[in-house]
Amino acid sequence: MQIRFWGTRGSIAQPGPATLRFGGNTSCVEVRADDGTLIVVDCGTGAHRLGKMLAASPEPVSGNLLIGHTHWDHIQGFPFFAPLFVAGSRWDVYAPGGGDRKLQSALAGQMSYEYSPINLDALSADVTYHDLTEGVFEIGPVRVTTQYLNHPALTLGFRFETDEATAIYACDHEPHSLHPLNAPAGAEPIHHEDRRHTRFLEGADVVIHDAQYTLDDFPLKAGWGHTPLERCVDYAILAKTPHLVFTHHDPDRDDEAIDALLDAARERAASADFCPLVDAAAEGMTIEVSRHGRPRSHRAPSIRSEGSALLSVSPRRASTVLIVDDDPDMVLLLETTLRADGIRVLTAVDGDSALEVARENRPTLIMLDLELPSRHGLEVCRAIRAEPDPRLRDAPILILTGLKLKETDIVDAFTAGATDYLTKPIKPTLVRSRVRGWLLRTSGA
Ligand SMILES: [Zn+2]
Ligand SMILES: [Zn+2]
What we know:
The protein is an alpha/beta fold. The chain is built from 12 helices and 19 strands. A hairpin with a 4-residue loop joins β9 (about 155-160) and β10. Bound molecules: zinc ion (2 copies). One zinc ion (ZN) binds near residues 151, 172 and 225.
């Protein structure tokens, strides 16, 4: 398997003399299987030059375009990707969706009359759009496994496996929790979802991962949906990744700043028992991915996503979310946010009525404040986990809290049966993607 970087920048393109070495174009990576199968991952501005190279071929070039999410820095190259304008070529375009043609409308939106001289109907290639959820699908000899990332838009990470090699692409992603704080490099995360993320990375020969920020940046950047470099290195140590390539470089960092990050990342890696090779992604950089001499049996299995990642476009049953909070402003914010996504919302203001409403309606997901009148949130959580009806007992519970949680509080919440937690102030875009991800994972909504 061969990987080539065409765009390594996050958020906005940043061309100029200060970014010549690591590159100024936004996300785009070319993955080639040994039989020539072409997968383009993300379609930021870097896709323009890749497209020119492909379109220069005497024969129409067909391929597969995988988009982790549809923020601008991952799709702005789409209207400029030349192979899409070559008659006789065939392109399959994949991105996370809800089974309601969201991908096609998101791409058409940025190409509408106000923004673009060419609309989506003008593409000459035979293009098929596929909405994805978590699961597995195949592209030629490549088995692709998808897993949701934590970002303020529904976002998938991709795992590419062939008989010869495994590569992971995980952009854009924020740890669910930074706990344990001040831990040595490679410490196991506290949050279930962070552990699940590292399991997704296990067994890969190369991991390409978002590291737009550092822990020092985080007081201002929490909730923006990106990984601090230190945690990115920790993931590679934990997952025993032989080769980590960090990418999605912040537009405010010039080449020298990325050199400094690379030194810091290598130093952190060297302090652990298992020391991954660390590189910073650079435009034009090519990697031959192989198993680094490890026998195949030592490869960790991919996550147990037995189901297909391909969503059908038929309309699905509406999901119901129960919001339990005694703060009317918070309830209004959450209700408005979720209703915009077509979700049916129920509310309760104290622990007793929460249990009543939950038993009567069996919501698909419960958002639960901790400090409630009549019963504490954790008590409600434990009561739901003890219910006889599995449809209620197994519903995901997202804890909401305005408290700055200590490590022990988080452990208590998980012990009581919480699935996940969100800390106030709550960012509506993050709530929307997190809830949508849970609904898709648990009920196929
Ligand atoms: Zn991005
Ligand atoms: Zn993004």
